[in-house]
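ARCHIVE RECORD
Type: protein–small molecule complex
Small molecule: zinc ion
Source of inputs: curated submission
Record status: active
Notes field left blank by submitter.
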Amino acid sequence: MSKEEKQNQQTETESYNERSSYRSFDCGSFTVEGFSRGPVMTFWRVPEFKLGFDLGWQPWEFMGVPRYFLTHTHLDHILALPAYLARRMMMDMERPTLYLPEEKVESVRRAIDAMAEVNGSPLECELVGVKPGDEIEISRELIVSVCKTYHSVPSVGYVVWERRNKLKPEYAELSGPEIRDLRASGVEITAETRVPRFAYLGDSSPQGLDENPAMYEADVLVAEMTRLDGPVEDETQSYKSGHLSVGDYALRRDKFKNKKIIAGHFSIRYSQEEIEEAVRQFLPDMLDGRLVLA
Ligand SMILES: [Zn+2]
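STRUCTURE (tokenized, with ligand):
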């Protein structure tokens, strides 16, 4: 089969655009919905948190998400941005907030302005540049932190933390009235604890996981598995790739403490069969059943 015939076959049999569907993963107290194929489209949301991650595509029902966190500006991760803004304008919804690597704010602003001109009406949003180490307060309960990731353009990952105020251990033995009196006297009896609930890597070579422990600890991790090759002898090769392979997962299998790991962004050059076979080969127990494929 010629290269062109193979390409035609792939575009016909794996018409993800036409399918326009997405997967829904029940993660206990929240749901993760979306889909990802490199370099076709990547889009996710956690409806309970009202947060979206990457905008490579947008099902109509995702339009209500008021905040999107963009990992990087490759088109398969931001292609639906102008449509998302136009839809919200048309439906009289408040302007959304988009977080993205700070290096790209200006060029994305120019792209939105150009699309507004093409569209013939304004496309309003707030663009917030972020860098690794930043923290964004979403609500009393939720904070999003920004992590360094490694890709071929400026990129970041995100972790959603749930914060809870817990009684400090030194007061654990006290009775209800004693605690009330202490609090009334102005003593700080609680301390904030943070639990990583959801981590989103975006596109990255393995350092994006290794350098951000919360990626391995979050209840749910959404990460990429673009390539299906095995572990390489020289890890620096993996570092240069800007992506993860199934072999990179196999090498790190003991590091994943997550309750659920959702892997996606498989290259479109692989069929579903090839994906499943490679994952079975390198990770036969699906990381103790915690790994699911998007
Ligand atoms: Zn990319």
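CURATOR ANNOTATION: Confidence is low (pLDDT under 50) at residues 11-19.
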